[in-house]
Design brief:
This protein is globular. Helix 1 packs across helix 3 (83-101), helix 6 (162-171) packs parallel to helix 10 and helix 25 packs across helix 26. By secondary structure, the protein is of the alpha/beta class. It contains 31 helices and 19 strands. It has an eight-stranded mixed beta sheet with strand order 12-11-10-13-14-15-16-17, with helices on both faces.
């Protein structure tokens, strides 16, 4: 044994080949935490000292994955360091990786499972990389508001070409084995049981001179192989595409591009310094802090959800009542992730529509090359359709997804309860109706809960799991387990009108209605909120959701919270709905819609809508009297204050759950970190003062006691004192 630590070991076998094996103690995965990095530096120093005894070095892992990446939680402390200290710590790691690259013998990395971020940057410093057919590699740092800081931004383009590297780093997508091999990021792909032997064979070929590993090193040490004109063309093309996609709110892609362009022709040792300075610049932005915060929230909620499932009943089969687009989406998601499901409806036409939806979604995966036709056939075989209740009798969970009508839902749940096993979970996919009320139709309300999917089901990660007054812990645990099994992000909330997400969304939409009523231009409001970071403005959102759905939801919310959600003026959305303008589904709402070349609805300005909105407006003020600042404040205050009330009323149990519900459920701008983190960024006292400016607008702008107390005590939702 050359080196033995708690994170890795180095052994020397009889033919002079050393093996550095990652196996982090007391952890299910290998990660580059501070302890592992420290041991890498020590091990490399030990290997260098014994270089005369070593002919080659093989990197391996004893875990399921090679290295999943850096330990973000530990590195958060580095983000707060002065720039010089932060840069020096990064450079220390860079130098250790450079020492690996400069060892006086060949190096090969055997990558099993996942190697991402820093977990892939380390293999990039070795001469060759062998992965398995089950592996994924990549540099996803951009999703955290940063970019590779341990050599990835200069080694990768010298291996796979500038254009490919720019795409990998700017998108952050993990790469499949065939793509990684084709691009040149890895040198061989083998079956998992052949990995060690294949990597050892490659290393021995380097030792006997069959492979010119020194030439490979020179490629990585020196500048990219493009002349200045070719480089300029690549960077300018990438700059236009990447920055247009990233938008003005995400600085990391631009910082990464600038760094890569600066060090493109530099020797590795100079490039290190440029990369590190760029990394520190990106890491110090508020956007990086927010995105890292979201990542940590995600990890915390995932741990919490998995802890809940320890008391869950086993789910081997499921059913969904109500086909169509929503039912078909739920059936597709369940079957895709391996849980057989029965789709039940009262007529064949609906079942055909549901199956058509599932087939369409699967066909898209085949078309993108991420699924074979055989796998598609196997997935479809996990979806069965029926017209009779009896066929769902033996399922473990039934998702009721019939029309959003309390009487019909109650009737369906009552009928269902008499057919299924006494332990079957009954989950209602409702967006606003009280689960406690629905459960009164059953004999065992403890097995009834809400399971609110968001549309479109395959794209929206959130599922709200709603606990009624009598819902049992086991019912919640089993429903959470099913949500996880089908690839969703479950958040448990307590019952109230609209639950968490819609309870928060409707004050936002009501703020829009009030602005329009007061005389603001709805298209101007849309542009302001899109510039704020929302994927679409409120008028466009109403059209996409459906004005009929919005009016129904608004009535439910007004009944539940009349003091602040009952609209006491003529709302433009209601007037449009009365005229049959339902949004995209009818071809007109706030905007007009026509199919584009791909058949998707394309938004156009509608003069009739403008006239209708003007007719319903009180015109208290001229449209140009509303500043962008006022629009943003009125819209965001109404939403954020309701989020605080949800926390205060214990509808959600943590700021993390509240913020992630909005990120996953309605597309709250991720770079802002969530509604409560947004309040933190302004300051609780400043946010209260902002709300007080609009107190004349009614109860929706009243400051909850929780927030008022926080402002007085200078406390934030995240991070203690402001």
């Amino acid at each position: 044994m050359i080196y033995e630590g708690k994170c890795l070991t180095v052994k020397l076998n009889t033919d002079g080949i050393a093996e550095l094996n990652f196996d982090l103690q007391d952890s299910s995965v290998n990660k580059l935490n501070l302890a592992t990095i420290s041991e890498v530096i020590e091990a490399v120093a030990t290997i260098t000292a014994k270089a005369s005894e070593i002919k080659g070095l093989l990197f391996t892992s004893s875990k399921r994955d090679f290295i999943v990446g850096a330990d973000i939680f530990e590195f958060l402390g580095w983000f707060a360091l002065p720039d010089e200290d932060f840069e020096q710590r990064l450079l220390d790691i860079q130098k250790a990786f450079a020492e690996i690259e400069d060892l006086p013998f060949p190096t090969v990395c055997a990558i099993n499972g996942v190697a991402l971020g820093g977990g892939f940057e380390l293999p990039l410093s070795t001469d060759y990389r062998v992965i398995t057919t089950k592996s994924k590699v990549g540099l996803p740092e951009i999703s955290l508001g940063i970019f590779p800081g341990w050599g990835g931004s200069f080694r990768l383009p010298r291996l796979i070409g500038l254009d490919n590297a720019l795409e990998w780093i700017a998108t952050g997508k993990p790469q499949r084995p065939d793509d990684a091999l084709k691009k040149g990021a890895v040198d061989a792909v083998v079956e998992p049981d052949q990995l060690h032997d294949a990597a050892m064979t490659l290393l021995k070929r380097c030792i006997d001179g069959s492979m010119d590993y020194e030439a490979r090193r020179e490629e990585k040490r020196n500048g990219i192989k493009l002349n200045k004109i070719e480089q300029l063309m690549s960077f300018e093309t990438a700059r236009g595409m990447i920055l247009a996609k990233a938008g003005p709110h995400y600085p990391a892609p631009k910082i990464a591009l600038d760094a890569m362009q600066t060090h493109a022709n530099m020797h590795r040792d100079e490039a290190m310094v440029v990369e590190v300075k760029g990394f520190v610049k990106a890491a110090k932005t508020e956007v990086a802090a927010n995105l890292v915060g979201l990542f940590l929230n995600d990890q915390a909620l995932n741990r919490q959800a998995r802890k809940l499932t320890k008391t869950a009943a086993k789910i081997e089969s499921a059913a969904v009542l109500g086909a169509g687009v929503m039912g078909g989406g739920i059936a597709y998601q369940s079957a895709l992730k391996g849980t057989p499901i029965i789709m039940k409806d009262i007529n064949n036409e609906a079942l055909e529509l549901g199956m058509k939806e599932a087939k369409k979604l699967l066909a898209k995966r085949v078309g993108r090359g991420i699924m074979t036709t055989d796998v598609m056939a196997d997935t479809l075989a996990r979806i069965n359709t029926t017209l009779t209740y009896g066929d769902v009798a033996n399922t473990d969970i039934v998702v009721e997804a019939v029309v959003e009508n309390v009487k019909i839902k109650k009737m369906v749940l009552a009928e269902l309860e008499d057919i299924v096993d006494e332990d079957t979970v009954l989950a209602s996919n409702t967006s606003t109706i009280s689960i406690t009320e629905l459960a009164t139709a059953t004999k065992k309300p403890e097995r009834v809960c809400g399971m609110h999917f968001f549309n479109p089901v395959p794209l929206m990660p959130l599922v709200e799991i709603i606990r009624g007054e009598k819902t049992s812990d086991e019912t919640i645990a089993t429903t959470v387990a099913y949500a996880l099994a089908i690839g969703k992000k479950p958040i448990v909330v307590n019952d109230c009108p609209g639950f968490m997400v819609n309870r928060v969304l409707f004050p936002y939409l009501n703020a829009f209605e009030k602005l329009v009523s007061d005389g603001a231009d709805f298209m101007h409001i849309d542009k302001v909120m899109e510039r704020f970071g929302w994927p679409m403005g409120p008028a466009y959102l109403l059209d996409v959701v459906g004005l009929d759905v919005a009016c129904h939801g608004s009535a439910v919310m007004a009944e539940g919270f009349p003091d602040r959600m009952k609209i006491d003026f003529e709302a433009a959305t209601e007037e449009m709905y009365k005229l049959g303008r339902l949004g995209q589904k009818s071809g007109s709402g706030y905007y007009q819609y026509e199919p584009d070349k791909r058949g998707k609805p394309k938004k156009k300005v509608d003069k009739e809508a403008i006239a209708l909105v003007a007719k319903s407006s009180t015109n208290k003020r001229a449209a140009d009297d509303f500043s962008d600042e006022e629009i943003t404040e009125r819209m965001m205050l109404s939403l954020c204050l309701e989020v605080v009330r949800c926390l205060e009323d214990k509808i959600v149990d943590s700021p993390e759950a509240a913020d992630m519900s909005l990120i996953w459920g309605i597309g709250f701008p991720p770079f802002r970190g969530g509604a409560l983190r947004y309040i933190d960024s302004i300051g609780t006292a400043e946010f209260v003062a902002m709300a007080n400016k609009y107190s004349d607008l009614g109860a929706a702008y009243e400051v909850p006691k929780l927030l008022a107390d926080m402002a007085v005590n200078n406390v934030q939702f995240f991070g203690g004192e402001a």
